[in-house]
From TrEMBL:
Pfam families per UniProt: CheW
Database matches in SMART domains: CheW
Gene Ontology annotations for the cellular component aspect, listed alphabetically: cytosol
Name listed for the protein in its UniProt record: Purine-binding chemotaxis protein CheW
Ranges of residues in domain CheW-like: 18-158
Domain of life where this protein originates: Bacteria
GO biological process, one term: chemotaxis
Length: 167
């Protein structure tokens, strides 16, 4: 049985964000993060590149007059760049007061992953992308790779992004 959340599953007396994860795909792998960090999901808007930034920072977008830096999560995870398509979207999040857009291949769904279905990620090698992964979540017969959004940017990178004009 799928654990996909349906609107009628919500009880007004409960913490409706508890155990909820937004699932998205990169290179046919399922990733997820706590939905409470999500501000908005956007179709891929026009991106203005900023010279001299890290390769995974694709540039900035203008959302209702606010300039927001965008990161290609594929590139951040050391996955080869893939041309954007009609399912490519931007997930707007906020990290310590810094708005950030995450470009992902596609959004899948929102699922409930109870704490008893979460296992700390095994340490397999020391790849740069493994630092973003903190656990795996079991949902039915599938496994979601749970990412720690706080680790997407180092303190130095966050500081550099804050210096981008308009952010």
């Amino acid at each position: 049985m799928s654990q996909t959340l349906k609107s009628w599953d919500l009880n007004a007396n409960e913490d409706t964000m508890k155990d909820l994860y937004l699932c998205f795909s990169l290179e046919e792998r399922d990733y997820a993060f706590e939905v409470r960090h999500l501000t908005e999901i956007l179709a891929l808007p026009a991106i203005t590149t900023i010279p001299g930034t890290a390769p995974f920072l694709r540039g900035v977008i203008n959302i209702r007059g606010k300039i927001i830096p965008v990161m290609d999560v594929r590139l951040r995870f050391d996955i080869a760049f893939k041309a954007y398509h009609d399912r490519t979207c931007v997930l707007l999040i906020e990290l310590d007061g810094l708005p950030l857009g995450l470009i992902v291949d596609k959004v899948n769904d929102v699922v409930r992953i109870p704490v008893e279905n979460i296992d700390l990620a095994p340490k397999i090698g020391e790849s740069r992308s493994s630092r973003f992964i903190y656990a795996t979540g079991r949902v039915g017969d599938s496994v979601k790779i749970l990412i720690n959004l706080q680790r997407l940017l180092t303190q130095e990178e966050a500081h550099l992004i804050k210096d981008i004009p308009g952010t």
